[in-house]
Write a structure and sequence with these properties.
The complex is a heterodimer of chains A (382) and B (331). With 382 residues, chain A is mostly helical. Chain A is 73% helix and 4% strand. In chain A, helix 5 packs parallel to helix 10. The relative contact order of chain B is 0.17. The chains are: A mainly alpha (382), B mainly alpha (331).
Chain lengths: 382, 331
């Protein structure tokens, strides 16, 4: 890489990270509902202008996606530092990031392999309950998080055979039935706390409790700041993993399976194997996010894992534009943050999102940002 | 003394026999009660499943707002009842008529509207998009009831409009209102089957279901047939919603979701697009639920878990239903 290209990459990354960070800051710091609305409109206008004038794709291209990820990670760190003593904002940030991780899991399943999963919240719940049950034992908490992912993948593997034998509506029905079944099961099961749910202790890492406020480098950090950092790390890792999967031959195989099963099978691609891979990776991601989320909130109950919540996860995918990671991230932030910042719409959020998704499906099926076409031999993808 | 003793023994024997037969009788009564409830539920599920199967027949789509249309129908009926009470109409027959007619007619309109706005514009899109659009449309409907119906977030009491007479044979109670509902439901199913088989509209629906292109060339107004099918299916759901309200004496903004999934499961079990399959699937699901409640008496709360598990297993075994459409793959 020449020095000039390296310089361009650093500058573009810095520009993207700075603008994104500023927009997020403005949104999170906004006090009045009017400011929130203005910031949102401004952000949408900025992104639309950037896309239309081709400035944004060029910037991303010059920076290179890995550098952009690093830049966004740094922006996340700066935001955590800025809001170091505001637990509400930190909790919001962490929640949006964990939902993003869960949606990345769904993305691998639906956008890459074409397997619908309407039980996202249920797998999130499997992760959470695993963390609640295992967290009480002496198991180190990073292992508990891994176990949450493994448990979600394991529970998901019960659905592998039904999902492989069916497709389309029938596969969708199986996941819907499973989601309802899971929630009913939790409600009537006394060992797992029934409708009242379970309490959890916070995350412990090498004797350091994430729940406590702590002074670091002369700044008093709220406990949620550390969860936020963990969520940033998890989200970056998840995006990195999903991108690696998509840009490898696995991604090509998944695309083939989604687009035309018969043709894929003719080219010797094992449909079952790749669907299993996508489902397992996806559910594991959802489970880890669910585990960390449960530890952060300190409490889980069946009511957090309703069919409605599963639908919200799928809506995020569609609103962002199926198959587009940047759109997915933006949609996750908007869907999670907007009702919290605009209290008057809090009560109406499901109605609002459902109408939005219907409009998107009828008027602009590609979502906020269109899926980019795979360029196998190009130098950088847009 | 001896005679007296013999009498006593005979008395004892008779007592024992009565107790025994009462025990056996109790089991039979209980069974009859379960069968009765199962038939009631099965009819309700079958009515919902018939809607799914009709929509899938004509357009090859799954209209997932169907369950919420059912709830909306029940709430529309409740509104009509409240309006009549407000207007001072106290007798049950006009009330019942108004409830049923308002529910079915308004939902027929709503169903046609949903078909026009959500389903027809998405023809040619991936089938999953239609599923999603209608799921979200159903969510919007559900949320509208919760937010805008007065007290909609709480369960609403549904008036008992049918005569409440009942006959009891030992433990078995036959309620007149249940009997009337079953008769009405059966008449509706039979009527629909006659409409589909004997009328020009039914012929058109079957023609469109079989081959849209050919039906069009034969001069069938495709859009009209599709919208009418949506109207008929949705009216059936509204009727099931009123039945549900009368049976449980309570309706809830969220109850349609579960009933919709159950109806869809029933239709899929029977094989989407098949009339007999939908009816069979409805009774099968009700049977599974009842079986779950009987076989797991210590854990009757698990009856839905049991029913959905069996649905998933059955679909794994027969991926396109028991009377399935045949999915051939051609390259």
């Amino acid at each position: 890489m020449s020095l000039r290209r390296a310089g361009a990459s650093v500058l573009s990354t810095a520009a993207i990270a700075a603008v994104t960070g500023l927009l997020l800051y403005a949104f999170l710091a906004a006090e009045s509902e009017r400011t929130v609305g203005l910031v949102l409109v401004g952000a949408v206008a900025a992104v639309a202008a950037g896309l239309r004038s081709r400035v944004l794709p060029r910037l991303v291209g010059a920076a290179g996606p890995p550098a952009v990820l690093v830049g966004l990670g740094v922006a996340g760190l700066v935001l955590v530092r800025v809001f170091h003593d505001d637990p509400f904002v930190l909790l919001l940030m962490a929640r949006a990031l964990l939902v993003l991780v869960a949606c990345l899991g769904l993305h691998v399943q639906l956008a890459d392999a074409g397997v619908p999963n309407f039980a996202g919240a249920a797998f999130f719940g499997v992760g959470g309950y695993t963390a609640a049950v295992l967290g009480r034992g002496g198991l180190p908490h990073p292992l508990v998080l891994l176990a949450s992912g493994a448990a979600a993948a394991a529970v998901g593997s019960l659905l592998l055979l039904p999902l492989l034998r069916t497709r389309g509506h029938y596969a969708a029905l199986i996941t819907i039935a499973f989601g309802l079944l899971f929630r009913t099961f939790l409600e009537v099961n006394e060992t797992l706390g029934g409708p009242q749910g379970l309490k959890l202790g916070g995350l412990q890492l090498l004797g350091w409790s994430f729940n406590d406020d702590r002074r670091l480098l002369g700044v008093e950090f709220s406990g949620y700041a550390f969860y936020c950092l963990a969520a940033v790390a998890l989200a970056l890792a998840a995006v990195w993993l999903v991108r690696r999967v998509e840009r490898s031959w696995i991604g090509v195989a998944l695309d083939a399976v989604r687009l035309d099963e018969t043709a894929a099978a003719c080219f010797g691609i094992s449909i079952g194997r790749w669907k299993i891979a996508a489902l397992t990776i996806g559910n594991a991601l959802i489970g880890v996010a669910g585990g960390l989320s449960a530890m952060m909130v300190g409490f889980i109950a069946p009511n957090n894992f309703t069919f409605q919540e599963s639908l919200v996860l799928v809506s995020i995918l569609l609103l962002g534009g199926l198959g587009n990671l940047a759109g997915l991230a933006a949609a996750a932030l908007i869907v999670i943050w907007l009702p919290e910042k605009l209290q008057p719409i809090q009560e109406y959020r499901y109605l609002l999102f459902s109408v939005l998704v219907v409009l998107v499906l009828v008027l602009r099926p590609t979502g906020l940002i269109r899926r980019s076409v795979r360029r196998p031999f190009g130098s950088v993808a847009g | 003394m001896g005679r007296l003793g013999g009498q006593r023994v005979r008395q004892r024997q008779a007592q024992a026999e009565r107790a025994l037969s009462a025990g056996a009788g109790r089991a039979v009564d209980l069974l009859a009660q379960y069968v009765m409830n199962g038939v009631m539920l099965g009819l309700m599920y079958a009515l919902v499943a018939l809607g799914f199967t009709l929509f899938f027949g004509v357009l090859d789509v799954v209209q997932f707002a169907h369950g919420d249309v059912l709830t909306a129908g029940a709430f529309a009926g409740l509104t009509a009842y409240a309006a009549l009470v407000h207007a001072g109409v106290q007798s049950a027959v006009p009330q019942l008529l108004a409830v049923v007619l308002t529910a079915t007619l308004s939902m027929a309109l709503l169903g046609a509207l949903l078909g026009r706005l959500l389903v027809l514009p998405l023809r040619g899109a991936p089938p999953l998009n239609v599923l999603l659009a209608t799921l979200m449309g159903g969510t919007a409907l559900r949320e509208c009831i919760r937010l805008f119906y007065p007290g909609g977030s709480q369960p609403q009491r549904f008036p008992a409009l049918l005569p409440t007479a009942s006959w009891s044979v030992r433990r078995f109670t036959l309620r007149l209102d249940n009997l009337l509902m079953i008769v009405a439901g059966v008449l509706l199913v039979v009527g629909l089957s006659l409409v589909l088989r004997r009328t020009r509209l039914g012929l058109a629906i079957r023609a469109v279901a079989q081959d849209e292109e050919t039906a069009r060339t034969m001069g069938i107004d495709f859009r009209r047939v599709v919208l009418l099918t949506f109207a008929i299916g949705s009216a059936l759901a509204a009727f099931a919603g009123v039945m549900n309200g009368l049976y449980y004496n309570e309706i809830n903004f969220g109850s349609g979701l579960l009933l919709g999934v159950i109806g869809f499961s029933a239709a899929v079990l029977g094989g989407l697009g098949s009339f007999e399959g939908a009816v069979l699937g409805g009774f099968l699901f009700a049977g599974l639920q009842t079986l779950g409640a009987v076989a797991l008496p210590f854990a009757s709360a698990y009856k839905d878990v049991f029913a959905f598990t069996v649905v998933i297993l059955l679909m794994t075994w027969k991926p396109t239903g028991l009377i399935g459409e045949r999915l051939g793959e051609r390259v």
